[in-house]
Structures are given as structure tokens and as C-alpha cells.
Amino acid sequence: MRRMLLTGGDGFIGRNIKESYLAKEYTIFAPSHKVLDLTDSKKARQYIKECSPDVIVHAAVDTTSDNIIRNNITMYYNLLRNQEQVRKIINLSSGALYDAKRRALRFVQEHEIGDAIPEDDYGYSKLICNALTRDASNAVDLILFGVFGKYEKQTRFISQAIMAGKTGKPLQIPNNRFMDFISISDLIRVISLMLSSRLECKEYNITSGAPISLLALSKLVEDRLRRPVTPQIASDVTALTYSGDATRIQQKFPYFVFTPLMKSIEDFIGESDV
């Protein structure tokens, strides 16, 4: 059986990958941070040598420490140093690399990477990691915007909306905002396709290309729950749009169709512990 090294295996995306059908196609090695510190180049090289993966899916990320830039770049760099030992490396990136904190992203396209330098540490680290991907022979960035599903943090918007509907408490929204959302199951389908296809480009926005406002999204949750969800918006000012252009991924996989958002929310409600 083929072998996969999965970083960030204890996180939202990693846990879903481990429980997905990919576990029947790959022997998945998903070491915890205690087992494998990716910022240690020697340990990273030794672990990759021992588990001998065919592919690497890099889902580990630092979003909270005082060393976000250094940690995110170093983790990815230490994986890429061993790229000759694997067939393919998939790096899960973020729309933050487009400088999402300071400008509206309205169907932003991949060729716009680098047009604006993110001022936040997380976005900046993702931009530098993209430069590393472009220099690698067998790596690709999957740029994520909004992904939801089982194991997501309960502070995430859709989980909060479900909780509001179930408890009858108001759904607190700082600002209304238009965003892209896809389900974790659709992301895993894209990862699976990427693992088995040629890499014509170095980065792909992973989005349906159909942004939705948070208010409209809360109404979808209400419809699926069949319970009222009452949004309370702190400010009438609409926050910056956060959406990517889907042309490149649609051209890459013309027969791939993202699950309708209402169906994805219904499925999430059915398996949610919220």
C-alpha cells in the first residue's frame, strides 16, 4: 500500500483525513508534535527516511505562537529539503497570503499572489511558503478560504450558528461578510484528485467560486435545523470580502462538482456534536 506522511494530524483537517477513504488507499503516518518536531531539520529528515512516504500532505500550521513566521516557514522548508524522497508534496495554504487582512478579496486569482504583502505574520508566512513551493519540483499549494465540518472548532461560524439554533441564544456577528465555504469532505476529494494527477500549476484556489454572506449562511443553517437562528450584528459596516476565483481548479478538474452548500450544512448538522 502507498504511504502518506500527514502533518497536523491532530487538527481539524488532519483528523478528517485520517478518518476518510484515503486511509484505505494509503498507510497514513500522522505523528504528533511530540513525536516529530518539524522545526528540527535533523528529526524531520530522519523521520521521512524511516517512514519512507510516497506523498506528504502538510496540514500542520502555527497560528498562535510568538514565532508564527519562523515556525511555519521552517516546518515547510524542512519537508521540502526531503522532496527527492517523495513523489508529491501537497501544502495546505490559505487565502491569507493574498493580504486578506487589509484588502477585499473578490474572486482573487492565483496570479495576484505577491501583488500585496500581508502585514500579519500568518499571511506573510504563507506567502513565503508559496515562494518555496514555486521553487520545488513536486509541490503544490492548495489555497483554502472557508472549510467547515466535523472536528472544527466551536468558535467557527457555522458551528456557532448551529449552536445558536439549538440553544435559542442569539448568533453574535461582529460584521456581515461575504466568504467562500466548502465542506471538509469536498476538500478531501480535491486532495485525493491532486495526489493522482499531474501538477500543471504551483497553486490552486480551492473554492466553489460562490461566496455567501454570513447572514445568508445563518439562514441556511436555520432552514436545515428547522429552528430559528437569530443573528445580532455588532456593526452595520460590511467586513472585507474573502473569496477566491475558481477558474483554475475548474479547468484542472472539469468534472468535479462541489457539494451544494445546503447539503453540506445538512450533513454537518447530522454528524455535529455542537
State the main characteristics.
single chain, 274 residues, alpha/beta, Rossmann fold, six-stranded parallel sheet, two-stranded parallel sheet, 10 helices, 14 strands, 38% helix, globular
What does this protein look like?
- This protein is of the alpha/beta class and 274 residues long.
- It has a domain at 2-148 and 181-209 and 242-256: NAD(P)-binding Rossmann-like Domain (Rossmann fold).
- 38% of the residues lie in helices and 19% in strands.
- It is built from 10 helices and 14 strands.
- The chain has helices spanning 12-19, 22-25, 41-51, 68-80, 121-135, 157-167, 184-195, 214-225, 247-252, 261-271, and strands spanning 2-7, 26-29, 55-58, 88-94, 105-108, 139-144, 147-148, 171-173, 178-179, 182-183, 203-206, 212-213, 231-233, 242-244.
- The strands form 5 sheets. A 6-stranded parallel β-sheet has the order 2-1-3-4-6-11, with helices on both faces. A two-stranded parallel sheet has the order 5-14. A two-stranded parallel sheet has the order 7-10.
- Strand 3, helix 4 and strand 4 (88-94) form a beta-alpha-beta unit.
- The protein starts with a strand and ends with a helix.
